[in-house]
């Protein structure tokens, strides 16, 4: 009678099946890991793409900002040049018309029946507060005449003759009231005899600042 040990074969079959199962499990885990890696790589690739888009957008904004700043500097320089040019033109215009305005104001001061260019409200207040500071509307301006007019850097120097000191004081009073003059200062006067009329007159000089 021949005996066959089937238990050993069964055990070997079970071991083979177990090895195959373990191998299948390992392969499944590897596939899962590979899939996970692909998924992770895809997510990181998407994040990288989005970040690159954001970086590109920021770079574009920076370039635009640089361009805007550069243009702003150019515009600012041009505006500064225009302002400087306007100021220069304004000074030239003022220098051209200013002395003319001063001469016209002096003509008004020395015209019979005329007076200084002064604010009416200020003049009324002066009449109430200090009547002696107000000009005399009946003054005969022919009692005074000018022989020299010099203006430089808005400083005026006048010279002339008058019949007496009160005439000189009236001119200074009118100039002080005028909106075109300031800091009027009388210089020492001298009495002398006029060579033409042989009358005694006052030789005077005064200085003032002009406003225009």
Please provide a written account of the structure.
The chain is an alpha+beta fold and about 210 residues long. It has three helices and five strands. The chain has helices at about 5-110, 120-130, 165-175; strands at about 145-150, 155-160, 180-185, 190-195, 200-210. Strands 1, 2, 3, 4 and 5 form a five-stranded antiparallel sheet that branches. The model has no long low-confidence stretch (mean pLDDT about 80).
Q: What portion of residues belong to β-strands?
A: 15-25%
The mean pLDDT is 79
CATH homologous superfamily label: General secretion pathway protein M, EpsM
The secondary structure category is: alpha+beta
CATH topology label: Gyrase A, domain 2
Number of domains: 1
Distance between the termini: 147 Å
Low-confidence stretches: none
Number of DSSP helical runs: 3
Q: In the CATH classification, which architecture applies?
A: 2-Layer Sandwich
What is the H/E order?
HHEEHEEE
Judging from the principal axes of the Cα atoms, what is the shape?
Answer: rod-shaped
- Reading off the top of the CATH hierarchy, the class is best stated as Alpha Beta
What is the C-alpha radius of gyration, as a whole number of Å?
A: 52 Å
Report the strand count.
5
Helix content: 55-70%
Largest sheet, if any? 5 strands, antiparallel
